[in-house]
Amino acid sequence: MLSTNNVPAVGAPDRRRLRAFAFDPMSSRLSGQFLTIDIAFETGLQPGPDGELVQVVDYDATRRCWYQPVDLDDPPVLAQDGLRPSESDPRSHQQVVYAITMSVIERFQRFTGRRFRWRGDERLRLVPHAFYGRNAYFDPDRRAVLFGYYRADDSDTQANLPHQLMFTCLSVDIVAHEVTHAIVHRMRPLFTIATNSDVYAFHEAFADLVALFHHFLFRDVVEDFVAASRSELADAAALLSLADEFGRSTGRGGPLRSAVGSAPDAAAFEATREPHRRGAIFVAAVFDAYLATYKSQIADLRRLATGGSGVLGDGELSPDLVRRIAAEATRNADRLLGMVVRGFDYLPPVDVTFGDVVRAVITADRDLFPDDAIHLRGHLVESLRRRGIFPPGVVSLADQALLWRRPSRALNLTEGDAPVDLGQLILDSTIKLDASATTQEAAGLAARERSKPVFSQTADWARAHALELGLDPEAPGFRVLGMHVGYQSGADGQPHPRIFIQLVQRREDLEIGADRDTRTRLYAGCTVIAHVDGSVSWIVPKPLPLTRPELLDDLPEPARTRAREQHRAGERRLRGIREWFGEVEDEDPLAIWLDEPAVSRLTFASLHTPEED
Amino acid sequence: MSDATVTIRMYNPGFGDCFLVTVADGTATWRMLLDCGVHSHGRAPVGDGTRPIGDVVAAVIAQLAEESPDGRPRLDVVAATHRHSDHVSGFADDAWAEVEVGEVWLPFVEDGRDADATAIRHGLVESATALERMAALAADGRPLESWRPELALAMEFAVNSGPNLEAAARLVDGGFAGGADAHAVRFLPDRHQERNRVALPIDGAAMHVLGPSRDPEQLKRMDPPSAVRWLEEAAGQLDGGDARSDIFDPMYAVPDDEVGERVPIALVRARDAMRLSGLALDEAALLRAASILERSVNNTSLFLVLDVRGTRFVFVGDSQYGAWQHVLDDPHAAELVTGAAFYKVGHHGSHNATPRPVAAELVRSGGVAMVPVGTVERWKDSIPESAILDTLRDGGARVIRADDPEAGAGGGDRDLAFRVGPDGLWSEVRFTVA
């Protein structure tokens, strides 16, 4: 706890500054640089650190021992931006994982326009020295990110000493990557069911993207990059320190390093199956878009600095120019990452593909920035196209073709047979947004009780409009997986409140396997995006075949045509899922021996295992 | 040219392979024994007990002696498809020392003079030994019966892939009648492609050797998983006892008796809720590595097609996905394995040892697929996989299981020359080739 020796007492600061390696111990050693991470000051932070959102548990399962938890409110620690990071002091490791995690979460909050909370307010646990091993992964069952440590050997990067201890928890990239997995899991819990090859690939790509763009948060570092690359930033190697120190020995970052900055090849994406490689192509495309917008954004600065020619002279850039360009580079990273993150709420609740991601990002961005004044959307669509990433079946890459679909007729949450009373939802979402509200007020038991009726009403509404949403009115299992109001700012600077609802329906009748608990669950799902008056603006369905398709004959047009399309799409999706399960079974050496489906053995732990096969 | 006969006798040791193949034309006869082993947990039930592999060995030798003009048991070829116990354990039996053998055929990975092979073999043995050690470590002194199923399975893979020293010595070093000088050992496939079609002393009969592949990409699949090395490193950290080094200066570690006062209770609770102890030796990773090892060894299987005047008999050992891919990718090889009169179902009928897309075309209508399998309770739903056997039947094959041969032999529009031995010790089909 903070000491209060002054009278009258001095209030707690707004921000807490903590140091970390830039971006891992090896590169920090070479550059002599540390990052100073600026995060919100949590009052009441306990030793661990143990805060409102995360809890650092420094127990080593291999050595069966605890390491002394750090107290970040200790005055000597507070007075010097946290402990100086050191490989030999585990308390500084605790500080690093806490600081990076909080900074990633804070960035998410900014982009999504709402305060971040874990499901059921169950904190994420960070275990910086969980075990001896070349791995670090998010474990949804343990609700934890587990970091391994290991001794370097001859195959590890040259700049390390043989047999030196390597701590995955000290890499900014690895921490940011793993925490992003946890955040994605919070927002789309069913993305751990690998119903197609993109589901985990998306998880990986998104985590890499956040880690990569997180580098731009640190102004000193960006200024060095800008100065060194003479504003080009194109030398990907400098920017892409993504887990460099750990890259080779943990098998991380390899596909990413080879993809980012490579020449686009439209056929490569289609031909690639392996999740990390597919994900890397997506990240590379976003990075291409970043560079394209960045170049157009700094063109004026270059002209100003060169008397209109735009051709920089020899020698070092002026520090003023570097500062201005670096600021632009950072702002641009925020724009691009923000655009992708905002798309998140527009993703389907299950079975995501990269094609869905493109549509979600474009739809979200168009809702907020209809004019695309700085051509951000245009650059992104073009970069994705050049790398072969676009939704199957689209005939044009104009915004119109890439948007999600509107309902076939006007649809409103507050009207019809099963209306939803949205008042409480909007009120609660607003309370959660208020930084001065306590956790208890925002998400305590009472708040949860209050939200129950709106959830059950919404489930009834979904059943009443099932065919429209790609769900099956004849089958059981309707569930509201998530429902919230987001207040994102648009081009006009105004908040644009939107209601985001994730609906799912488990279709046990289509699942294969005797044991309903261990077999792979199949969900139909639909994300509904509505205005706060209840009118539905977009629907994002993931249908499955209807149990009684003949019901559709009685529907009026145009609902009938739409519902038939959904039913057929559902049949295609089910076929695709089954084929994919078969592929996974064929590749899985355990498939013969165990009843549990091979797909459920795809976990973050197994995906992050170094060069297994 | 008179009619030739091909007789295939499948012995039933339980969960294991043992096939006697006899090709005859008039007075010329050629005999091959393909594998002889049983899984340690899969012996066939007989009466109140189970059938020891020695009974199968004795029956094979007695049969050979009976067919021999001078009463001395004799085989033209002994082939061991791969080193798993359920294919070679029977060769440890000393009774083999009296059998005269013309040639021993082994997959090239067993070749002591082949550098690629030696590396793979050492890797496999080391991995198996390391996995065995780690499984024992993870079990922490508990008796085998009380092991968690995942761990027990990992251990089985390790034991099955481990060295079968006596069997290997007999096969590689000349443990049959007359010793090493009396017969040749052939490691297949040969580097010289033309030697992978072996002419037999019967008019119009040859054996094609289609696998294991020597392609470097495929060799990588036969390599033991590198994950074993990482796991071993982790296990080493546990193993050290007092010698184990701390990773930080001891002043940062909290001694056990001070945890209560120095670590906040909220953190201790969080640790307990996470059940972290399982992380020290990751059993899921152990099992995964062990299963990759199991598949690696399966994919070293000899893949043989006996061709008698255009009628083909396919023996695939335990080739799994990967290894099959190599065969099917070669049009000539793919043609040899489809439309066969006989197919020895791969890996006891498990699902990825018979590729689904071609399963219905492997055996011609009226042909025979034999499944060397005895039910092992734990795998009863997956081995053999009924969908694979159904697909073979759909293609017109008669599917004969070692543990219930009569059920599969009936039906079809032609009568099958089919016999079953006493106590179900063997089942036999005979084909006549014009």
From TrEMBL, chain A:
Annotated source species: Agromyces tropicus
Domain of life according to the entry: Bacteria
Protein name: Peptidase M4
SUPFAM superfamilies: Metalloproteases ('zincins'), catalytic domain
From TrEMBL, chain B:
Name of this protein: MBL fold metallo-hydrolase
Species this protein is from: Agromyces tropicus
InterPro entries: Competence_DNA_uptake, RibonucZ/Hydroxyglut_hydro
Top-rank taxon: Bacteria
